[in-house]
Design goal:
By secondary structure, the protein is mainly alpha-helical. The chain has one domain. The chain has nine helices and four strands. The strands form two sheets. Strands 1-2 form a two-stranded antiparallel ribbon. α3 packs antiparallel against α4 and α6 crosses α8. It is elongated, with a radius of gyration of 21 Å. The protein starts with a helix and ends in an 8-residue tail after the last helix. The relative contact order is 0.15.
Length: 265
């Protein structure tokens, strides 16, 4: 249970981390243009999700950065946005339940103490055990583990994939910083610098994708199994491998079929 809450906290914190890295990208770009004598650059506003907008300098061509956007990417951004609002206490858990499949008996709360807002916490199993279907304590435990298999995989997948995109943005930001240093030595025109930045973004994205495996729900399941082994987690009552693979299949289908516009918060 606490694992699901922990992963939700990580997703929530990623919102501000993404915004910070995009702002750093803006900073390096603005400094590069200033070095060739241009101090006035226009911004464009990009909508990442409901009420989540970022302003980016136009020379970056942020639409190129987010040209990788597809339903899966938008699904991921929504999980980040919803987790953030939940952690801030601005919405209830209903939207997250629809996104990751949390069972009705699973209760989330917030507590003070996180570096970014309040921390999302799971209400203890001793409090919720009576709400789980089952004839005895072991049956309740088995059903509880089964109910949490889906959100555990989905949330872990969200954490891994968000980190993947964050690392890609970091690689792009570092490349723009490198171009900024070159701008101090080169006699580039405004058009030259714009082309350098956009070529660097495209090349960095292509290289990153070629060298860094993109997380999948299948790889998230493998990651969780490895994590359980390292931590010595009790797994005697876990679902069988074939059942877990079926859960992954259901989650992939859920992403394909979900209407993101219908999730209100």
């Amino acid at each position: 249970m606490s694992e699901c809450a922990d992963y939700t906290n990580v997703l929530a914190d990623k919102k501000l981390q993404i915004e910070n890295i995009l702002e750093l990208m803006n900073k390096y770009t603005k400094e590069a243009y200033s070095l060739i004598g241009i101090d006035s650059i226009s911004f464009e506003e990009i909508k990442l999700d409901h009420e989540w907008y970022v302003k980016m300098l136009q020379p970056i061509g942020i639409t190129t950065v987010f040209s990788l956007a597809n339903k899966g990417f938008n699904f991921l951004l929504k999980k980040v946005a919803v987790s953030y609002l939940l952690k801030q206490g601005r919405i209830g858990p209903a939207a997250l339940v629809k996104l990751v499949g949390l069972p009705k008996w699973f209760k989330l709360g917030t507590s003070v103490g996180s570096a970014i807002g309040g921390a999302i916490v799971a209400v203890g199993i001793d409090v919720t055990i009576d709400a789980i279907t089952g004839n005895d304590e072991r049956a309740k435990l088995q059903n509880g583990i089964k109910d949490l298999a889906k959100p555990r995989i989905e949330l872990r997948y969200g954490v891994l994939k968000t980190q993947y995109y964050y690392d890609m943005l970091m690689a792009i930001t570092n490349e723009i910083n490198r171009i900024k240093r070159k701008a101090a030595k080169k006699k580039w025109t405004e058009e030259d610098l714009k082309e350098e930045i956009r070529d660097a973004i495209t090349d960095t994205m292509e290289t990153f994708k070629e060298t860094t495996p993109e997380p999948t729900r299948e790889s998230a399941l493998t990651d969780l199994k490895g994590k359980d082994k390292i931590l010595g987690n009790w797994t005697d009552e876990d679902l069988s491998q074939s059942s877990l693979e079926e859960v992954v299949k259901e989650l992939n289908e859920h992403e394909n079929n979900i209407d993101l516009t219908a999730i209100k918060y």
